[in-house]
Every structure is written in C-alpha cells, then in structure tokens.
Amino acid sequence: MKSFFLFLALGLIVAGVAVGRRRLRRVRRRKLQASPFPVAWRTILRRNLPLYGRMPDPLKDQLHGYITIFIAEKRFEGLGGLEITDEMKVTVAGQACMLLLNREMDVYPKLYSILLYPDAYRTKESSLFPPDAHEESPEVRLGESWTTGSVVLAWDHVKHGARDWKDGQNLVLHEFAHQLDQEDNSSDGAPILEQRSHYIPWARVLSAEYETLRRKSARGRKTVMDEYGATDPAEFFAVATETFFEKPKQMKKAHPELYEELRNYYKVDPVAWG
Question: Is the peptide bond before 233 cis (omega within 30 degrees of 0)?
C-alpha cells in the first residue's frame, strides 16, 4: 500500500513539473512575441522573401512572432565549414513559419536543430546488392527532414528558393511540410488535421491528385506541380505545399479541389496576396 501511494505521489510530482514547464514556456513565448522585431530582420525578409512584401500586415505580425520563437528555441549548426549568420536564421525561419500562420500551432515541437551545409552535400545510402553484400553508395542531396529532430538544408538552395518565389520549388517549404507530416510519427502525406472528419475529403482529393500526377509523369507530361511529387504520398504533400505558396493561381485553376484542401489546412489564401 505504501508503495502504491509513493508511486501516485511521484506521478503527481512529475505531472506537476510538466504543467509548470508548459506554463513557463507559454510565458516565455508571449514575451518573445511581444518583443520588438529587429529592423535588420525585417530587411532580410524584404530582401530574401519577395512574398513577405505582399502579405497583409496582420500576417506579417504573426510571422514576426513565430520567427522570434523559432530562432530562440531551435539550434542552428553550420556544416562543411559554414558559419551561421542572422541572414541564414531569418531566411530559414521566415519560410518555415509561413506554414504556421492563422493556426493554433506549436512551433515544430519535435524539431530541435537545423543543419546547414553551404551547398549540396553527399550522404551515404545503404543498400544490399547483391543480397549477401552490404554496399553504401554516395548520394547528393539538397535537404532532408528527420523524425529524430533535425532538418538538413543546403544554404545556397535555401537562398535561391526564397528569392525565386515563382518557380514552384522551395527547399524550406518542402522539408518543413515533411516536418508537419511527421508530427504524428508517420510520413504518409496526411498531417494532423483540425478535425477527424477532415481526413475523408483530404484522403479523397489528395489520393486522386497523386494518382493523376503519377500517370502524367509516367507519360512525360508537364504539370503545375513538379514530377517529384509522384514519388510517394509524403513527397506529393511536400511538393503540393511548395506549389500552393509559389504558384497559387496556377494551382487553383488546374487543381481547384487540391487548392481548397490546402487552403483549409494552412488557413491562408496566397492568391489573395497578389
């Protein structure tokens, strides 16, 4: 009996500590959001993110708050001799936090670090070929989203993707869409939706659009979305996210149901931004 009460007491203590930490985090975040947004950071956003200049002021204010929290809570690490600067932090955070606007969202709760290479990097891809021989082949990559708490990015492609906001390709939006997809511990093209009833239309629309992209890509036909989205459902969601923000008018015209699903999910309408 004593051990039962001791176990109960320890459980209550642990629960109390967790609640206390959450309260402290909320207080700290409110202070961060209320702090003045640095003028130098605004300059970086205007220079590196053309879309920022077209966003409504209320969304800009939201974005500033999210960026401040993101930079305060996430660790940036330079690899391959790269030295981290404020420009890198703000450019990455600015794009990543566009995916959180107008929603009751935590700031990528499972993400702890952003690893930046100066350019495309090589990683070893393990395989078995033939079956009894273990082989590692080098693979050139621009970015990765890990379920273990990190996002890896090539800085030169981050910068180019941010400044060219019309080509439908954006490395940061792509990898952070994966982060949203992975928050339920699976990477399947179905992020956590607002209500359970939303999964039915989401599955219907995205599955149909994914199969359409696969068929067109197999035939070599060009579409609004990059053919890389035909790789699997997770990549389709990431590519669709890039297209939604970078080619909203084209997507809305060619894929109205898909655009509507993404508009409902992200709670913004990039077409209205001009």
Answer: no
